Amino acid sequence: MPARNTPSSGGHLGAEMGEQAEAAMITPSMLEEEEQLEAAGMEKERQMLEKARMSWDRDSSEMRYKRLQHLLEKSNIYSKFLLTKMEQQQLEVDVF
C-alpha cells in the first residue's frame, strides 16, 4: 500500500527543508568568524594547558626540594647518633 502524506510525515519534510534553507543562509563571513572563534578557543585552551603544566612543574620541584631537605635532616640526625655511639664505645675502650 503506498504511503500517504499525513501531517506527521509533512512535518518531517518541513524540518528537512528548514535545515536546507538554514545551510543556504550561512555566509562566508559567518564561516570566517566561526574559524576565528575556534582558533581563539584553541589558543586559550593551549595557554591554559601550558599554565597548568608550569604550575605542576613548579609544585613538583618544590615537593622534590622538601623531600630532599627531609632526607638530609634524617641523614644528619643519624650521623649524630652514630657519632654519639662511636664516642661511647671509645670511652668504654679507654676505661678498660
Automatic annotation (TrEMBL):
Residues 1-21 are annotated as: Disordered. It comes from the Eukaryota. GO terms for molecular function: chromatin binding. GO terms for cellular component: nucleus; pericentric heterochromatin. GO terms for biological process: DNA methylation-dependent constitutive heterochromatin formation; lymphocyte proliferation; negative regulation of gene expression via chromosomal CpG island methylation; pericentric heterochromatin formation. PANTHER family: LYMPHOID-SPECIFIC HELICASE. This is Helicase, lymphoid specific. It comes from Chelydra serpentina. The lineage of its organism: Eukaryota, Metazoa, Chordata, Craniata, Vertebrata.
